[in-house]
Amino acid sequence: MGTFAKGGSFLLSQTNPEEVFTPEDFTEEHRMILKMVSGFVTDNVLSKMEDLEAQKEGLLRQLLLAAGELGLLGADIPEEYGGFELDKISSTVIAEGMGRAGSFAMTHGGQTGIGSLPIVLFGTPEQKRKYLPEMVSGLKIGAYALTEPGSGSDALAAKTKAILSPDGKSYILNGTKQFITNAGPADIFIIYAKVNGEQFSAFIVGRNAPGLSTGTEEKKMGIKGSSTRTLILEDVEVPVENLLFQAGRGHVVAFNILNLGRYKLAANALGGAKFALELAAGYANVRQQFGTPLAGFGLIQEKLAEMAIAIFAAESMVYRTGGLFDEMLRNLNVTGVQGGSGPIVAKASEEYAVECSLNKVMATEMLGYVVDEAVQIHGGYGFISEYPVERLYRDARIYRIFEGTNEINRILIPTTLIRRAKKGDLALQEGLERVERQLELASAVPPRNGAADLVQAVKDLFLFTLGSGIKILGDGLLKQQEILGRLADLAIGALAMESAWLRAEKARAREGQEGARLKRMLAEGYIYGRIGSLKLTAAEALAALTEGRDLEQRLAEINALCRYEPINTVALRRTVAESISAAGHYVVT
Predict the structure, then answer these.
(1) Full domain range(s) for residue 442
(2) Would you call 85 a catalytic residue per the annotation?
(3) For 230, which of 107, 215, 399, 534 could close a Cys bridge (C-beta 3.0–4.6 Å)?
(4) Segment 167-219, tens digit of pLDDT
(5) What EC class is this (predicted)?
(6) Does residue 526 lie within any of the structural domains?
């Protein structure tokens, strides 16, 4: 097995800009895929949005078949089962492009991600041969049934049971699943149930299985064009050969698929945010007030710039993480591995579970911010359904709930890091001790000089705050959700800032100072615009941990870690906004 960056290690070391993947590294094939997806969404989805939102009978199947003809359903599926087994950057590009497609992005994700990946990664060769080719073509539609009325984030509390039949040839499933995407048209369900009420397991269940039925379509705030129904299981007989992976190992399937789902959702959010900025910039260019286009007003310029800055940071994170996946998979030797490459690919998703959560939280909250500002720029018209931005606003809200709520993901981030450190998989203690040594003398922490230093400052803030929590509370820290949430925000800030900065530095080395000017401004806008709030985040966590002189000392220490001179972000944003307005859409050159 080769070498690759460990998950979470970005917090403990510096990364060479040339080691990160950025959108500027797209191959010609990546660019062709993005162009194809954009064309598909424009011609087939946006043009039919009214019918899609009205859930016109048969339209979802028609769109999936059209996507299948273009190869947009098989990026992650091996060639021997009809897929294309593209690199993770290619599948990320597809997910980003589908982010413009509104509710159809959920249908597509349900098919290509959570609906088929359990079989891709954990299925037997027979299961793969039976189900995957028709899923690649769109002839069969997949759905993923994990959530129940009484168990959402706490998936392992599922009540659905699977009892082995007396003849040992099948499992009998009983229970109810809720909020199941693609449930209406689905032909194949990945259903989670507890064998004998104890062993959490995954099953492949066909639509026509006697006793399986669905409720009516849920009436949703947004993503109205996707199918969301309750799945009802009444003595559903499932052949034993349809057990997926192993009895009692369903959590391995579920959690690894969720990791990949979170990452893909971040890419969807990126595409949706770019679309919202495009609509906002176009409107601001033509809408006039007081004889001047909206794009000429300072506060509107600030909005356009901040939207672009947030998108740039999220984009840099998403593709950096995709590059990590590809680098790890290139270094994994799957030859002779029992069960094929599936478990190894799943191991890759487990390795970068923290990064998947970081991306999911950051990108989905970025999307929420961007669509909100897009509506604001449209003014009253943004509140009218005739304008697409109204739909984007409603559709975006679910992103912070899907694939594990952002609150759950915030808890997972520091919890996973701490547990990995205890197992010896992450040298977290060394990082904590380095920051402690650095603070022994205030003079050992020089004022931060420039964006790169501020990136390191946020990493140090995370490590110092985490170290304080461990010293004061020990294992009790894992029960303090408010503090864990703030630690997660510091980690998100560190990855977003560093990814944006490394991308700008990589561009400067290749394109020169002038060629990379806008990228540098976008990175600096993100870093300088958020360093103050992250410092406050650390201070709030420390104030929850201690008080009195001890708190004063620790606050003085974070001040020492985070001394810097502000730059003129007002002028910076004006320049960024000019570029966005001139292009009429998100642009980084």
Answers:
(1) 426-571
(2) no
(3) 215
(4) 999 999 999 999 999 999 999 999 999 999 999 999 999 999 999 999 999 99
(5) oxidoreductase
(6) yes
